[in-house]
Amino acid sequence: MAKAIEVEAARREVLARVRLMATEEVGVGEALGRRLAVDAVAETPFPPFDNSAMDGFAARAADVAGASADSPVALTIVDESRAGHPATGALGAGEAIAISTGAMLPAGADAVVRVEDTDRGPATPSGPAGAETVVRVEETARGPAAPSGPTDADAVVRLEGTTPGSATPRDPVGADAGPPPSPAGTAGRVLIRAAVAADANVRHAGDDISAGETVLRVGAELGPAELGALATIGLDPAPVRRRPRVAVLTSGDELTPPGRPLGLGAIRDSNSHTVAALARLAGAEVVSVDWTPDEREATRAALGRALGADVAIVCGGISVGEHDHVKAALAELGAEEVFWRVALKPGGPTWFGTRGETLAFGLPGNPVSVMVTFLTFVRPALIAMAGGEPASRRTTARLGAAYEKPTDRAHAVRCRLELDERGWVAWPLPRQGSHVLTSMLAADALALVPTECAGLAAGDTVDVELLDRASMGR
Ligand code: AMP
Ligand code: MG
Question: Which of 273, 366, 371 to mutate to test the pocket of ligand 1 (most atoms within 8 A of CB)?
Fold first, then answer.
């Protein structure tokens, strides 16, 4: 029997045969989980224009340099700049333009005063606008004149006189920012009660993204933030890789679909669910999930159909038993073997080959073996086919308890991860049988103990492959 191939060598053999999927244009709204087929480059800056970070009043910092609560500066409101509706004119000395968050900074302004720092802010805890408020404002205005501002007591009196009530849009809202300046409030004057420095509350064009900047690299997997970035730079639809099409085939006379009573010696088929779900999480489109009994003809017919996909994954029937027909059927169908048997436990009798551009995997049928070999060989291939970086999420941990093994093959040990003051600790789960599917429920990682390693002591460092949300969906 041919010598089993080492895990890393087997992975290299698989990746060497990966074919990149074609590019297709997909709307950003449908592109979650896809991978970019190009670099995403911004043509224009973002934000596209200087804009306000606050609801308030655009002004010249120099005009309000002396403003304070005791000595407010009055500015004449000449216009409004709302989000999506810029002001039409420019701002001159002694003038303010009411502005909303995200609205374009008007020409002539160099800062924004928050609405809370004006007499048009939200309600003070003392209550709604009214005569009392007006009196208070007038009293304030009679205080020391602002050194640089164009204000004087008369101006303030006029303000209150011309826009009674609306001059102080003090809706009884709590501590939240008040309503944005309303169109009704764009006439008259505003009292500025705090000085601002130049650039205060201004977000500059290109703050986030500059023109020509590469925002995402080719191969990037598109999650929520990436989709938002694509929308921001206007790359919609986006060129992404087609999802690899995967056919899943389970084999075995004993397998009974859910919903049918279990006959004597029968078990339920779990692999068709674990493998199809793992494939979807790896970015694939599962085009079929089929089953074949342990018969040569039926196996060949089902495999013939599966080989029409980009990737065919057959689970079980790949060993050397008298009723294992997968290997022979693959040969009859013209699939060329690249390797059979990997120095790995669980997952020894793994087969890999190609037919034309199709990758074919024969994974051992035990429920844990099938998952471990999928994660080790199939998942990297599916990621690479979509243009992604197939490196798995590896880190190191200290082993929580000693682990002994013969030196004939590598072990992928299901572990629970625990964080202590010195870092991650990997605790091997008690039941490591390749049929113990429930051990995968508790597993946070696979500790990879190399072939030549006879054992590790508690506290020794071990490579671990994370069974995280990306690979396992939880
Ligand atoms: P095989 O690789 O066909 O020799 O199967 C190895 C072990 O895995 C046997 O105990 C099978 O019953 C079991 N097995 C094979 N396929 C499945 C499946 N789809 N779901 C659950 N167990 C399976
Ligand atoms: Mg079988």
Answer: 366
Q: Are 35 and 221 in contact (CB under 8 A)?
A: yes
| C-beta of residue 106 within 8 angstroms of C-beta of residue 96 | no
The whole-angstrom separation of Cα 104 and Cα 100 is 9
Dist. CA 342–CA 330, nearest whole Å? 18
**252 C-beta closer than 6 A to ligand 1:** yes
Q: Quote the pTM value.
A: 0.86
Let me know how many helices (H) and strands (E) the chain has, helices first.
Answer: 11, 27
Q: Whose CA is nearest to atom 10 of ligand 1?
A: 366
Kindly give the distance from the C-alpha atom of residue 251 to the centroid of ligand 2, in angstroms, as a whole number.
6
Nearest to 112, CA basis, from 143, 157, 75, 144: 75
Question: C-alpha 417: how far from its chain's center?
Answer: 23
271 lines ligand 1 (CB under 6 A): yes
Q: Quick one: pLDDT at residue 5? A: 98
Strand-pair category, 445-449 with 461-466: antiparallel
Sorted by sequence, the CB contacts under 8 Å of residue 244 that are 6+ apart come out as: 21, 283, 284, 285, 310, 311, 382, 385, 386
The predicted-structure confidence for 230-244, as pLDDT tens digits, reads as follows: 999 999 999 999 999
Closest among 81, 113, 121, 82 to 97, alpha carbons compared: 81
Nearest CA to ligand 1 atom 8: 366
* 218 touches 34 (CB < 8 A): no
User: What distance in Å separates the CA atoms of residue 385 and residue 420, rounded to the nearest whole number?
Assistant: 38
Kind and range of the H or E run holding 138: helix 131-141
Is residue 319 in contact with ligand 1, taking CB distance under 6 Å?
yes
Q: Is the dihedral of CA 91, 208, 229, 224 positive or negative?
A: negative
3-state secondary structure of 317: coil
**Beta carbon of 362 within 6 Å of any ligand 1 atom:** no
pLDDT for res 393 = 84
Among 304, 324, 306, residue whose Cα is nearest residue 316: 324
| CA-proximal residue: ligand 1, atom 16 (nearest) | 365
